[in-house]
Amino acid sequence: MFRNYFFIGVLLLIASNYFSQSNKATLYINFEDVNAFAQLDNPRNYDGKNTLHLDNVVNQDYLQQALVSLSKIESVENIIITDYQGKKIPQSLTNCRYLRKITFVKCKEINAKHTIKLLGELPALESINFGNCKIEAIPVEIKNCTQLKSINISLNNILDLKTSIESLAQCPNLESVALPVNQISELPENIGKLTHLKELNLANNNLTDLPMGLKSLDSLESIAVQKNIIIGPVKAYQKLNTLNIKYLSIDAVSDEELEELKKLFPNAKIKQAEKPNLDLLEMHTQIKDSINNEIKAERTKEADDSEYVIKKRSSTELKVLSLAYLHYAKVFDPLLNKNDFRDTLLFDERFTDTNYYNVYRRQKGLSYDYFELKFARTNEKKQIGVKFKITEYFYSNFEEYFAFNEMIWVVVDNQQSVGEFKNEWVKNKKYLDYRIDYQSGQKNFLLTFKTPNGFKELVVVPRFETKTQAISTVQKSYEVRYIKYLEGLNKRRKTFNKTQYDKTVEYRLSVNRLNNTTWEDFGKQYFSSEENKLSQKQWLEYYDEVISKEKRALLNSELNTEYFCRLLALNGVNERTSLQETKSVYGDLPNKLVFVNGKHEPVAVKNLYVLNRKDKSYKKYVGSNGPMEFFVFYNSGDPLSFVVEFRNGDFGIIEYWNAATVTSSDALKLSLTLMSKDYTDQYDIMKLLKLL
User: Fold this and answer.
1) Where does a domain end: 145, 179, 213?
2) Half-sphere exposure (CA, 13 Å, Cβ side) for 424?
3) Do 346 and 490 touch, CB atoms closer than 8 A?
4) Which of 548, 569, 586 finishes a domain?
5) How far apart are CA 135 and CA 162, in angstroms?
6) Residues 6+ apart with CB under 8 A from 294
7) Are residues 676 and 538 part of one domain?
8) How confident is the model at residue 23 (pLDDT cuts 50, 70, 90)?
9) How far apart are CA 411 and CA 445, in angstroms?
10) pLDDT tens across 380-417, in order?
């Protein structure tokens, strides 16, 4: 998540102070604490404090009360507001006339125009910070902040920089502008209007060059451009050589380039960021190979599962031992939920498993987020491509992607028409996850997409969507962009895996205490005699295999009405459980039937299942340990199949019968084909019913 980036740029200085409750100069108020308002109203709590940090400000009323309290405290000059969920800041902010600095963090609904208008009424305000606040643009009302010296806008991919600069240019005392981690790929030329600027922080963006407009910043002394994608550093920074630069923070350059920069900026301290971690490339290659092997294995398994070549069951065939596997999650999920923990799979293992969207496990009955692609046409004929649809979900969960911000992915050697491409990749297509791999030899990229049904790949090259740049120039940025992407991905990996390890320890300590008794009760309630012979580890291995190949395991299993009903459900044949519903479909008058064997002798039917092939439904009728008549509901002419369970566990079947209305008072006799439980399995039944 974006909070992982708070140590970047200027927010590093802020975070180190305000996120620590132990900071002696800061009064920290968390509105999740029931004593929050009592703390605010106690004047003694402000002794020696110059900063008030308001956390989890869930609504306007909370903030209103806090600002009323703050307006009475002259010693507090700084205020930090995090996780404010309202759109408008209360008018009472204007009464806090001693404020010199205000910081908003993760206030994603905040109205920038209204907020800036209020800030303009604070006579002492010198510094404004917006971190992860989704500010579309700094409004012109910023000109009323007459004492404003510095502004920091970070973690904001939607910022209209050109409009914001026009507004900031009207602040006569503005000396410092920080724009870290905003995915900026190009600075507008009007940056030169910030003529009073002394410090400019552009770190952690996607700049490939600097504009000539920077030459107009006569007062500029410090500029930070590290963690960008500057392709020709000497040529780019040469545009600043007329300025009196005293501090230059850049990405690592060669020794020759460094010497040239020292000549260009003889009075500057030049600080180089660490070189890209090339070990990351090697590590990612190893992970990629492992992932590819897993994907191949998954595809092989899918291919195997699609071929239901079922033999007569033997002791070595996978088969269902009972329906305990259907109850396992119901019994053990509450234990997992109690610990807020699902499983122990790590970050990259989850990518290879289609049961996960991003790092979250898919569960039946629960909604979850996908991301989508958008079609992108290029200027060249027959060239087509895609771009990622940047939704709130995608923006918040795949931040590493923004190394390729404002770019589209052009398909290499495309053989499809526009219509074919859209149908296969775009229209109504939902994706769970993705990976990007750079193929340096070919100077192209492999996009691997995970879908609910498996994995798909596209060979592509990135191109800018809105600006023209020579292909050779774009290619020079490929490796740097790829490393930025890997750094972001690895940051998510490390954060997730660390949390996962911590959860695993906590999970095992608590679960082990409950597991033994829960397992014993589970076995007593659901296990067959065969399952009772298995250890917990053996049963869970059996469980994993059965749920991954459930249909095959059921088909291999012995005759059993529970297994039979489960197979019907898996084949989309729904049970009609309500007699009232059945009558509403087939009428109130039932038909009287009796079942006989091949010799026309009455048989004892324990349970009868009537399958209506027309509407893919079935109705269960409970029988007896002796011969009896059944009153069955159907419409004349309906294609029916009958499956019965006898008292001794054998089955009988009528594969197909064109339903006839019984007009006489005598029951219609139907002759069954007998199937012995000792020589028949579910596969034989389903084959006769043509439901494989």
Assistant:
1) 179
2) 15
3) no
4) 548
5) 13
6) 352
7) no
8) low
9) 10
10) 777 898 999 988 888 888 989 988 988 899 999 888 89
State how far the Cα of 388 lies from the Cα of 386, in Å rounded to an integer.
Answer: 7
Q: Encoding tokens for residue 76?
A: 């507090």
Is the model's pTM score more than 0.70? Answer: no
Quote the Cα angle for 653-649-550, to 5°: 75
Question: β-pairing, 639-646 with 605-612?
Answer: antiparallel
Between 342 and 8, the more confident residue is 342
Residues 20 and 81 in one domain: yes
> Which DSSP letter does residue 307 get?
-
Residues 24 and 157 both lie in one domain: yes
Binned at pLDDT 50, 70 and 90, residue 649 comes out as confident
> Which residue carries 């969207």 as its tokens?
357
- Residue 212: C-alpha distances to residues 224, 239, 245 (Å): 17, 6, 16
Q: Which residues contact 496 (CB under 8 A, 6 or more apart)?
A: 346, 347, 359
Strand order in the sheet with 617-622: 574-575, 617-622, 605-612, 639-646, 651-658, 673-675
Distance between CA atoms of 169 and 167, rounded to whole angstroms? 5
Q: Which residue, among 53, 118, 126, has the nearest Cα to 92 in the 3D structure?
A: 118
Which pLDDT does position 310 carry in this prediction?
42
- Kindly state whether residues 508 and 628 are assigned to the same domain: no
Is 190:162 a contact under the CB 8 Å cutoff?
A: yes
Q: Does residue 168 lie within any of the structural domains?
A: yes
Distance separating alpha carbons of residues 79 and 54, to the nearest angstrom: 8
**Which of 157, 206, 277, 201 has the alpha carbon at shortest distance from 9?**
201
Count of domains forming the chain? 3
In this predicted structure, the answer to whether residue 341 has a pLDDT above a threshold of 60 is no
Instruction: Give tens-digit pLDDT for 312-328.
Output: 455 567 889 999 988 88
Q: Does residue 523 belong to any structural domain of this protein?
A: yes
Q: What confidence tier does 510 reach under pLDDT thresholds 50, 70, 90?
A: low
150 shares a domain with 49: yes
DSSP assignments along 141-202, one per residue: GGGG-TT--EEEEES-TT--HHHHHHHHTT-TT--EEE--SS------GGGGG-TT--EEE-
Instruction: For residue 301, name the pLDDT band (cuts at 50, 70, 90).
Output: low
Do 567 and 641 belong together in one domain? yes
Nearest CA among 360, 90, 505 for reference residue 79: 90
Residue 445 belongs to a domain: no
Which of 331 and 374 is assigned the larger pLDDT? 374
Alpha helices in 254-410 (DSSP H): 255-264, 278-305, 324-338, 347-351, 392-397
Tokens 């703390």: give the residue.
Answer: 39
Q: If we measure between CA atoms, which residue out of 178, 96, 198, 173 comes closest to residue 131? A: 178
Domain that holds residue 515: 279-363+497-548
Instruction: Please report whether residue 461 resides in a domain.
Output: no
pLDDT for 282: 73
Q: Which amino acid is it at 678?
A: D
Residue 17, domain CATH: 3.80.10.10
| Average pLDDT estimate for 497-511 | 68
User: 382 is written with which tokens?
Assistant: 């027959």
The residue among 341 and 571 whose pLDDT is bigger is 571
- Report the length, in residues, of the chain: 692
One domain, residues 508 and 648: no
Q: How far apart are CA 128 and CA 78, in angstroms?
A: 10
The answer to whether residues 507 and 587 belong to one domain is no
Region 675-686: mean pLDDT is 87
